[in-house]
What does this fold into?
Amino acid sequence: MRKTNCADADAQVSGIANRSQQAGKIQGEGNRLHHRFSARYKENQTQMYFPSPFYDGIRSDPASIVAAYNSYGAQFAIDAGIASMNDEIKISAFCSVVSYGMAPYGVS
It folds into this structure.
């Protein structure tokens, strides 16, 4: 059995606290994103961020999502409040919203 010294234990506790703070920030960003998109959904009278023909295009040519992100990704990131985040986060958020628009979960 490995002995843990105080410095190791402090480092572990510190790491857990940092991960907890990061998770809280991500959850807060998710809540803020939900409220921004809710306003857009109400404005469009739909549960989708993009209009239906957009999703039809992605369905008929899934590879076109790359071109869609190149065309709409910057405005999406501004609407989502994530423009200052790294590209991986912006692309993941974009793809999540597109996939939800194509096949919403929950009551439908």
Notes: The helical segments are 6-44, 52-60, 65-80, 87-102. The chain is about 75% helix and 0% strand.
